[in-house]
Amino acid sequence: MDALEPGGAVVEVRCAPHTFEETVAVLGLPAARWGLEAAQRGAEAAIEGGPRTAETVRQLLSACQGCFLAVLRGLRTETAPADLAVPGELLASVRGAVRGGVPLPRLLRMMWTAHFAALDALVAVTEAVVPPVEAAAEARALTAESFGYVEAFSDAVERRYAAELSDWTGSAAAARMEAVEEILAGGPVDRGAAETALGHSLGGWHVAVLLTADRPAVRLDGELTRLAEVLGADGTVGLHRSPTTLWGWLHWPARPAEEPAGRIRAGGPLAVGVRAAVGPAAEGVDGFRWSHVAAQEAARLSGLGHGGVVGHHESSVAGLLTANAEHARRFALGTLGAELCAASAKARRLRETLATYLAVGRSRAAAADQLHVSPGTVAYRVKQAEDLLGGTVEGSGWMLMIALEIMRAFDAVGQDPAAGAADGQLGGPLGGRGL
């Protein structure tokens, strides 16, 4: 264990803070940091070929870190498998798996796949530092001992899965989810039955809010209640989709007067580690559905928001333009060229200046006022952009504006269109066909 040293970029701690602190106390900080790197390799192996959404990655990283750090502590302290506490992060992920419809065999397969990948890294270090005549035996011993821990974890997961499934299938939460899924499907809905299951009126006006947290410890239902108070809603309904994700809806008898995302920001910061994607106010059963669809699209482009909050009004145009990511990527590259589409700070600055300049009717003074620079700086940057475009921006404003808005969406999710996927699917933070 003393030879374990982190090698790459610092991996963010996704497990519970006390889990990492306990590991540091047992192994030391370098080995604990190395454990995070190995756990990340495990998570990447486990999710390969599956739905790579931000929430899936978040849950998987937390569970993988909790599990592999526990294994490392057990190996160092020579703890018997029956005596090593099952990681809370792993047990928390079981509830999300049940509510997300993940079958138990797949969940167990992902757990073992993650362990194999992380264990490979540990064996590689062992073989590099242990004399060759001893390395094979040492690797076999590490493998056998670690398997004992993971087998104990598997037994605990099976028991927790059965309990969670029993609670979920017979609970009011399951009835609410069934009603919501029926509404979101867009077909005919028995409104009376749906309202009974939800305990929520489907008349009036609705605003959907998707809340996500960095860690399961955050009470998202409490945050939804606070947002209802900020916005003056007269009712809420919330569904936990995972330990770190909540689908919520707020209700008003009449259309709310203020744009909801802006009002949420004005009402004070969200809880630490929480992000909100907010749909538009919409009426009736169809409005309940549409606001949620729009909130999901806003979540896909969450980088366009501010203060952890993104609203549909901020992301709707970009969402529409990037619904087919391959077409959007090729349009932006074909219109702006590779240099102006680059992910560099200079290219982003030129795009921002050009977009502002065009939006204010090519007024250097107005653009300078919005960008907080001098008119001369605006003129200089526009000239630089025109040099990259190979011509003046006169006469092609609307084409450029579309391409620049597409690039704003790419920037929001941290993607370089020049490095787009060959199959035309650029997966964004929450997956899907778009960015």
UniProtKB/TrEMBL annotation:
CdaR GGDEF-like domain segment(s): 196-301
PANTHER family: CARBOHYDRATE DIACID REGULATOR, DNA-BINDING TRANSCRIPTIONAL ACTIVATOR ADER
Similarity remark: Belongs to the CdaR family.
Pfam short name (any one): HTH_30
Source organism superkingdom: Bacteria
Residues spanning the membrane: none
Organism: Pseudonocardia halophobica
Sequence ranges assigned to domain PucR C-terminal helix-turn-helix in this UniProt record: 350-393
Protein's name in the database: PucR C-terminal helix-turn-helix domain-containing protein
Record-linked Gene3D superfamilies: PucR C-terminal helix-turn-helix domain (1.10.10.2840)
